[in-house]
Amino acid sequence: MNRLLRRASLRFFLRHPWQLALAILGVSLGVAVYVGVALANDSAARAFELSSAAVRGATTHRLLPIGGALDESIYVDLVLRRGLAAAAPVVTADVGVAGLPGLRYPLLGIDPLQETGLRGFSSFAPGGASDLARLIAAPATVLLPETLAARLGVAVGDTVTLLVSGRPQPVEVIGTVPAIGADVQAEPPILADIATAQELLGRPGLLSYVDLRLTGDQAGELAAEPPTATALVALDREGGAFRELARAFRTNLTALGLLALVVGTFLIYGTMSFAVVQRRATLGVLRAVGVTRAELLGSVLLEALCLAVVATSIGLVLGHVLATGLVNLVLRTIGDLYFSAGVHAVPPSPTIYAQGAALGLGATLLAAAKPALDAARAAPAAVLRRAELERGARRGMRLAALAAAPLLAASALLLALGSRDLYTAFAALFAVLAAGALLTPAATVLLMRAIEIAGRRVLRLPEVLAVRGVGASLSRTGVATAALAVAIATVNGVGLMISSFRTSLADWLDTTLTADLYVGFDTEGAPLTAADVASIEAIPGVAGVSLARAVVLPTEYGELAVRGIRPGPRGWGLEIVAGDADALGELAAGRGVVASERFTFARGLTVGDELALPAPEGERRLPIVGVFRDFNTGDYSVVIALDLYRRLFRDTSLTGVGIQLLPDGDRAAVEQALRAALPASPPFRLRSSETIEQLSLEVFDRTFKITEVLRVLAAVVAFLGVLSALLSIELERARELAVLRALGFVPRQLLATLLTQTGLLGAAAGLAALPLGAALAALLVHVINRRSFGWSMSFVVTPGPLLTGLALAVVAAVLAGIYPALRASRVELGGALREE
820: exposed, middle or buried (C-beta count within 10 Å: 0-12, 13-18, 19+)? Predict the structure, then answer.
């Protein structure tokens, strides 16, 4: 008997190869997206960890400056007076490379003689002691990463031009540094002797920080009595904002990968459901001749298992190939968010492949469980009666609609209980998605009734049959419409989230960019005097200036960017989202600080809390008087009045100057006068607000490119899903279509009936996806992004993503009806009617 069942199953799928192929391809893509994203995330995370570990080495602590640069004399004091032998001075900055526009590379200036006990970078010197001595003694020499040298096509002895704050700085390549790691290879930094780095960056006598390897007692003593204007930070606390941001980014990508797998699961459910429906007569006969329910259940589940093995195997291979491309997008995105690195291999990760295989097999068997139970539980006589099948489908529709309410309640409960947890937010999102799928069949029936009533006087017979057929054949149409609605809602939701984020970013830039021109200096700042500022204000066409000083301070909350600002004629450029109405007045009076939304959310702070800032004369506590919206992806930040900053930190340097022009001001003339008025050293960058806005939006578009890729892949899975489901529906109606032919329908009328019905199915799914996609987008905007990154944004419903989803649903449905309609016009009526 088992052999008979296996043969019947095999013959059925061999007679429907396209249905089988589309189902396998849909699940394969779902598994591939999940595995590809997981591999890319894993490779990127390990590459950045390798890169950080190489720079960190055996370092346990880092001595950082407070409100300025670190003088070399502090390093001498650490080694000679305090006896800390395991200490290494470092100068670091991001630089550009001529010929590679838009890319940044870390330049690391080290003292090779002091590196042995910490990082061992001295071992990279290609020629041993002689080249190491040359790196120290010869000016403008560097060790270049092998991958960068290959990309530039340079060899040892060639010259490369680095771009330091826009200034070209030619350097000689005396050797290359191999990639870090074996299976996952991360790019090391560009290495230079510390004196060379100081010369290139224009920082004579200044250090970025000092790396230390300390015992517990040494760390305690140094923390209790640090050098003036410095702070000791344990390495595991540094870069916390970036790690949290990157972790949230990877979590979101994983969720999108799982969402594609969910769409594939709906496809499997539809495939197995239609396989049962299409074979209801065969299954009824098998039951009538003695096949037991257990045997029938096992047969259908075995079919699903075989399909799952094939589809999952293909998905794992596709996922590995997909990861090769995705990893570059992931790294480019994280590089835009914080810094650059490179990964040159996506090694096999058995754990991730095992997870992908388990998800693919498990999702397929789970999706096939209900169709298998339906096939096993039905009595033979009931299976053979079409009316009984439709009555069961209607009962199932009502039960599904009733089950949606508890799911929505569970989603609301999850959101209420886990107010900050990201995983409960994703669980709530999937619950909403499931509830929408359960409600879709009932909504489709109601829509068809409304169309029939409204068009009673204008619809012709083919259209009437098409409208009635959707509701009358719920066993065929319910699953297909629900699966398509879920897929289209996913496409709509992600599209609305991206457009909302982009609109919010553009509005934020309009608020933040209060000047027409911006002069930017490096992190050390420029010691502009009051006379220098007055000369800028006196330039014809200038309405006023704003001044800014930004430093990164080590605090109990991690690294914190403190921005001292003196606003210009157009105000602070801050959008206050929490705090008193006069928060900006309190800020201007020096009675507190305003903190970024990201920072307060991540650290659980509110307006009124006190913020401890390390200052040269000791810790200062300032109240938070307001919270401002901030889409910066670097360190957490707070804003303080520039006068208060200068009093606390004894730092009169400036990082930036904003110039507001008069309405009739000549921008070109002002730019020329600015270049003449500003001192030649330190170097500066001059940009317009339009350029900054354009560059920011370009970074945004690059950041969300991987999301768009995953959205397109979800759309492809959706298209395959509806194509497979509707092909199954129409092929299963061959006998019904033969009856219509016998009653006098010509092929053109059949074509109109079929295309109208499939178009209505697509339109019903597309319309159901509109509110479901909007709900998903609202969750992504107000909950997922808030918990992932800490910022809030406006929810903007634009017609573009919604119309795209609706068009995708209708086009996919209509295409699915073309082939069955052509096939129906050539059907042999006698045979089909005898079967009926």
Answer: buried
